Amino acid sequence: MRILVTGREGQVARSLAERAVGHEVVFAGRPELDLTDAASIEQTVARVQPALVVSAAAYTAVDKAEDEPELAMLANGEGPGVLARAAAAIGAPVIHLSTDYVFDGSLERPWREDDPTSPLGVYGASKLAGELAVAAAGAPYAILRTAWVYSPFGANFVKTMLRLAVDRDTLNIVADQHGCPTSALDIADAVLGVAQAWRGGDLLGRDRVYHFAGTGETDWAGFARAIFAESAKRGGPSAEVRGIPASDYPTRATRPANSRLDCTRFAETFGMCVPQWRHSLAQTMDRLLP
Description:
Elements: E1 2-6, H1 11-19, E2 24-28, H2 38-48, E3 52-55, H3 69-89, E4 94-99, H4 122-136, E5 141-146, E6 149-150, H5 157-165, E7 170-174, E8 178-179, E9 182-183, H6 184-198, E10 208-211, E11 218-219, H7 220-233, E12 240-244, H8 264-270, H9 277-288
């Protein structure tokens, strides 16, 4: 299957480059494909003629988005809609990646796909706009919301913790925001699982939103402690973690207090169990600290 993936250097794109054995995968990023340039999107889709489009690229600077709302909305809100309309024009389905930030974090349980959305900031609002644009574009689609993404690639929380622990004995980490750490390699496997299910043309579970995140839950401080425990096993850097409230670590954009996602719909539809986050973390640490 020829798959067009938007983005080249993102964590999911690089994970797909590694995992997509048996597929012809074409990666398109700037300047060839720019989410803020509709013509570049349309031309790329027309040239590649993919059987499936994976919408993985995004504006991801959560705090900076508060100062660049127009750019964030153009890239995350309008760009995916252009991409999906271009896919519809050639009869290709779309898998679009979204985020837990479409929710306000107020529930006491994990979020389900049909729970009301209410983004707290510009980034979440722009990603929600992208979901709506993809759904309205006319191409068959699956929207995969995920959260707390990490991998051996790019910048992420795991690599930041390891870097900071080189020079610091103690780190203050937020302990009142809860979520499900998710390996980008697992996300790539999920995307490819959907692609395989759609390969025969019946498009199982099309035109729905799904949640995909690591099984289990923690807070940022607990995630950091798990990272350092795995690092210590491998002779890597570690630090003491002191849990603090989010109010002690103000950021430009407000984060949801509860980012836990209920992934039952995805598992039941595609028959794929979401890996336990600690297991996937250990696999990533094996690569970061061989």
